[in-house]
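Thread: quick sanity check before group meeting

JM: Hey all, I'm pulling together slides for Thursday and realized we never actually wrote out the predicted structure for the chain we discussed last week. Dropping the sequence here so it's in one place. If anyone has concerns about the input, flag it before I start.
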Amino acid sequence: SGPDGKDCCHNTKLIGAGKELSDDLVPVPYDFDYSGLVNAPYAVPPDSVPVRTVRQRRYRGFCAHNGQALAAAAEFRAKADELTAVFTEIPGLDENAKKSATRFLADFFKDISDDTSVEKKLLRDCRK
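JM (edit): ok, ran it. Output follows.
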């Protein structure tokens, strides 16, 4: 469930055997057109986020969760090749879109290449 007074899971559906089996639920995100990975020509960042384009990264997490962010970065590093390979398997995906997405991911993996880089490039902008 989401925080008190908030709906759960913006742009995410919980999929599983049944809602009463919360341990079985898997979040499945959707609606990536405003992500830098997709880079839709009409996508612009919200005015409230100080970035010029949707491809510019800005960490918006809370400082209290920096330990979890470091752990998540380690998980992403471990799966870098697997995640990047997904783009070779998408039928009908334009070659330029594949190259753009893999470059975007390569930059992400460079930003999280080690904990020092994660702290310098992402976590320094955490919200108090």
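AS: nice. The CA atoms of residues 105 and 114 lie 15 Å apart. DSSP finds four helices and two strands in the chain.
JM: adding both to the slides.
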